[in-house]
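Exercise 7b. Backbone tokens:
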């Protein structure tokens, strides 16, 4: 089935390409990681929040959600079943991809970028309050992370939330449009970049003993971690392709065929 680029999507596609080029360019600029540091923390928040949400949805519980100053994150959860554990471990990278695709879809649906930023800020705030504040309090006796980790997570989460809401309330339409496109691209490309790193970490020849989501999957199933990463990468490319298609393409109408949308 053929698809073509929608005329009304051309400005959005140009914006997405600019955001993508900017994201890739920043990878090669010395010290640029300091410029996008808040964005990196945002992507980590989405990653860890996906773990926590899926853990709860599948009947498990969450003891804590923390992110570190180096951009890494950690969720301590107690799954209710093996299937719940598998879904929870898979949710980080795939959840980040889904979040990025959802932002593209909302932009394509002409949803106000200010609303997208506002909801994103509210989402980060809720995740911070529920999983970085309340969960550690209720699980204080069994808490496996230190106070400094919890404190950094809370401060970072609330600052990110405030920044996103400030953009939603005070940024111009052009700035808000670019911010949403940039965040979506960051979620998509950072998830793929992280999966590449996890693939190397879990490769039998050059792998390491670092704790990863793929390592958790391997421990639960006996299937090597790098195979799980390959599955996640395949699903991620599928999600990205779906997101780009929804963002930019319309179904081609064969010549001679009437359309209910035709003037």
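Sequence design result:
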């Amino acid at each position: 089935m053929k698809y073509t680029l929608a005329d009304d999507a051309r400005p959005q596609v140009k914006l997405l390409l600019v955001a993508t080029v900017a994201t890739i360019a920043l990878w090669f600029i010395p010290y640029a990681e300091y410029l996008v540091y808040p964005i990196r923390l945002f992507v980590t928040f989405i990653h860890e929040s996906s773990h926590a949400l899926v853990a709860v949805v599948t009947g498990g519980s969450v003891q804590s959600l923390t992110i570190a100053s180096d951009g890494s994150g950690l969720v301590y959860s107690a799954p209710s079943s093996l299937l719940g554990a598998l879904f929870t471990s898979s949710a980080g990278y795939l959840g980040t991809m889904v979040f990025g695709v959802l932002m593209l879809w909302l932009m394509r649906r002409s949803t106000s970028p200010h609303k997208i930023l506002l909801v994103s800020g509210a989402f980060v705030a809720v995740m911070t309050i529920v999983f970085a504040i309340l969960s550690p309090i209720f699980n204080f006796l069994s808490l496996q992370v230190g106070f400094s980790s919890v404190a950094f997570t809370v401060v970072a989460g609330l600052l990110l939330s405030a920044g996103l809401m400030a953009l939603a309330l005070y940024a111009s339409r052009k700035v808000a449009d670019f911010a949403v496109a940039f965040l979506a691209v960051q979620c998509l490309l950072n998830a793929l970049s992280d999966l590449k790193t996890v693939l190397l970490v879990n490769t039998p020849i050059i792998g390491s003993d670092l704790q990863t989501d793929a390592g958790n999957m391997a421990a639960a199933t006996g299937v090597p971690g790098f195979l799980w990463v390959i599955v996640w990468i395949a699903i991620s490319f599928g999600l990205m392709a779906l997101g780009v298609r929804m963002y930019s393409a319309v179904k081609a109408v064969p010549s001679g065929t009437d359309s209910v949308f035709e003037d």
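Instructor comment: The first helix runs from residue 10 to 27. Strands lie at 3-5, 61-67, 73-78, 249-251.
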